[in-house]
Amino acid sequence: MHALDTGLVPQRTHMQVTTSLETLLGLSGAPAAEMEFSLPISAKAVERLACDCSITRIVLDSDSMVIDVGRAKRKISGPTYKALKVRDQGCVWPGCDRPATWTSGHHLVHWVRGGPTNLPNLALLCYRHHWMVHEGEWQIVRSNDGEILIVPPTMTFGPPPRGPD
Ligand SMILES: [Zn+2]
Ligand SMILES: [Zn+2]
After folding, report:
1. What's the confidence (pLDDT) of residue 17?
2. Residue 45 class from Cβ within 10 Å (0-12 exposed, 13-18 middle, 19+ buried)?
């Protein structure tokens, strides 16, 4: 039996993702994560969803361990988010004019890899550009003088995909 959460005020999307630490770190060969009521999603998508406050809990299922990483300091706090909106005013992608209300906070160095949740490591990105950074393999970096730089995906030529025997 499922109780319906009809009394909840919708804020940001809350979801629970079951994943392994390997998936979260994007190691190749790691299993896809499973979202509640959804199809398996890629490590890149988990990383994007986990970038802002949209995930309250991530349950790691490797070695039957259940770890709640919701305790990690990755949630952008109210004052920090306010300051971020004042500074960036909207999506920071060059040429993008999406206002702040259409954006979410992006960790330039993802908190999974130890990036801090503070202003120098945060930038507002709209959904499309947030997707491009995580799933599209574009890179966004801040130069020493605070300028946002965009690095397109690098073409890599690995071994050709193996055909069926
Ligand atoms: Zn992000
Ligand atoms: Zn944008």
Report:
1. 62
2. middle
The reply to whether 64 and 117 lie within a common domain is: no
Domain end among 35, 55, 71:
71
Residue 110: the pLDDT is 81
Query: Domain total for the chain?
Result: 2
State residue 12's pLDDT score: 45
* Residues, beta carbon < 5 Å, ion ligand 2: 91, 93, 96, 98, 126, 129
The predicted-structure confidence for 87-116, as pLDDT tens digits, reads as follows: 999 999 999 999 999 998 898 988 777 788
Confidence (pTM) = 0.61
Strands 40-41 and 33-35: antiparallel
Give the torsion sign (CA, 27, 111, 72, 50): negative
Report CA(109)–ligand 2 centroid distance (Å).
Answer: 18
Ligand nearest to the Cα of 131, by number: 1
Angle at 135 between CA 134 and CA 137, to 5 degrees: 75
